[in-house]
Amino acid sequence: MGFLIETVFGGLMTGMLYSLIALGFVLIYKASGVFNFAQGAMVLFAALAMARFAEWIPQWTGISNPIAANVLGFAAAFAVMIAVAWLIERLALSKLVNQEGITLLMATLGITYFLEGAGQMLFGSDIYKIDVGMPKDPIFLFEKAFEGGVLVNKEDLYAALIAAAMVALLALFFQKTATGRALRAVADDHQAAQSIGIPLSTIWVIVWSVAGFVALVAGIIWGSKLGVQFSLSLVALKALPVVILGGLTSVPGAIIGGLLIGVGEKVSEVYLGPLLGGGIEIWFAYVLALMFLLVRPQGLFGEKIIDRV
Amino acid sequence: MAKKIGEVILEVKNISLSFGGVKALTDISFDVREHEIRSIIGPNGAGKSSMLNCINGVYQPQQGEITFRGQHFKHMNSRQVAEMGVARTFQNLALFKGMSVLDNIMTGRNLHMKSNLFLQALRDPWGWGPADREEFAQREKVERIIDFLEIQAYRKTPVGRLPYGLQKRVDLGRALAMEPTVLLLDEPMAGMNVEEKQDMCRFILDVNDEFGTTIVLIEHDMGVVMDISDRVVVLDYGKKIGDGEPDAVRQNEDVIRAYLGTSH
Fold it and tell me: N or C: which end of chain A has fewer CB within 10 A?
């Protein structure tokens, strides 16, 4: 029993991180109707910026306090992500207003390769470390209830807490602020939003900046776990099934989808893996998403599209 | 009721608009005076909505010019037109369906919000920041509009769930929240039953009367238009065939022909 709980816990933590990346997809899709293929590249780009600035800033300024260096590195990386958002709006999106979804998707595919290339050109292509002082030692919970207790990685626990806080913050931002209201308005109807004086271009820069921020946080968490390297860009592929499961238009969907896939993946690996020869973790999410597509193509919480005939 | 009708506020001069080979509007000119209710009528496909979309900055006419309070607006998008004080409603509802009635109308206050978008993002739940005080002030104005349109009961309902007639009212409310100088109404009574039409007429007259808002109204229901308009423009196949006070227009041979067809 203790082992099952441990597995589920591990799954929930990974799931929270999937949710965080899926959230980036959902934010941009909701506000601009663009399926942003570049979300993974943004994670890589942001993590690279963070890792390198945290390394460069002490060299440039002589600040030796690691916390200050990390905070400044974070600020610099966030500034870079805002600049990226602004450039994307200026150079790509503003030229493609009212184009087909597929055109915009292709544009983000281009942005993916550009960001991957530019990131490695500017920040280098080695494996870098992000050390934000996450504790690495495991802790044991419920030692009284089960023999040996439940082993939880402290780093995972913190990461999950940060991810949960981010999700709550974004939900508040969307629901409670005037900007959030404007964002939802743009997502619902571009034309009407413009007619009441909401500036589309500003809104898009904000959305992409927020998605950049989410990418940065996701990049730092994954990066401090696995090191910042090119494969970070591929983590986003794991978020695709999450988005399909949860629905492209739903913030809670992204969260629950992430958790479901995280837990499903781990549990199936542990309990089904030995029967099927292991390696389930790699494809489980996609099979689950495929089954969902057959039953509920709009995802768990997505809006059902009903066409008037 | 003696209404004060002022100077010419909006002037449309020699507007021509075509989509590829299709001529939507040919050489249209008319003016709108302050505080009046000016209607554009015509059969389906006459170019009424195209005309409104030109004024609203959605379409850029190939020829002619539009002047609003002495300012030309060529190459302006609908946001810039909105900033100048022109609001509109839509023929096919373009409300933010997932949002509540209150939120929909609040979006109309966007231009009146002074704190910038980033400041607004820093709202705190206790109502201390400047963005909160502003939000409360805006909310008050919106509540007044909600009272005016008699939709208090639906404040928190997502608009997608409201019946059509009420959605049209919310659409009007969102435009009113902008406190516009000129209000463009694109078929506000389309698809309504008699009772809903009467309500809508009352609201339009009240808006014009109480706030002094100039109204440009598109309708193809002749009866309604003739009752509430000060002056009427009649379009047919993208050309202007009549212009003047309702009674004069009613007698116009071309107008009768356009609406009833000719007898050969």
Answer: C
Q: Tell whether B201 lies on the interface with A, counting CB pairs under 8 A.
A: no
CATH entry, B95-179, from 3.40.50.300, 3.40.50.720, 1.20.272.10, 3.20.20.140: 3.40.50.300
Is the ipTM, as predicted for this complex, more than 0.85?
no
Q: What is the pLDDT of residue B121?
A: 55
Cut 0.80: pTM above it? no
DSSP A94: G
Distance CA B203, CA A52 (A): 62
The pLDDT of residue B7 is 86
Say if residue A76's pLDDT is above 90. yes
Answer for the pair A188, A243: CB distance below 8 angstroms, yes or no: no
Judged by CB atoms closer than 8 Å, whether chains meet at B94 and A192 is answered as yes
Of B88, B121, B174, which has the smallest distance from its Cβ to A177's Cβ?
A: B121
Quote the minimal CA–CA distance from A4 to chain B in Å. 40
Distance of CA A248 to the CA centre of its chain: 13
Per residue in A287-303, pLDDT tens?
888 888 888 877 777 66
Domain B1-85+180-259 in CATH: superfamily?
A: P-loop containing nucleotide triphosphate hydrolases (3.40.50.300)
- Residue of A194, A196, A200 for testing the chain B interface, max B β-carbons within 10 Å: A196
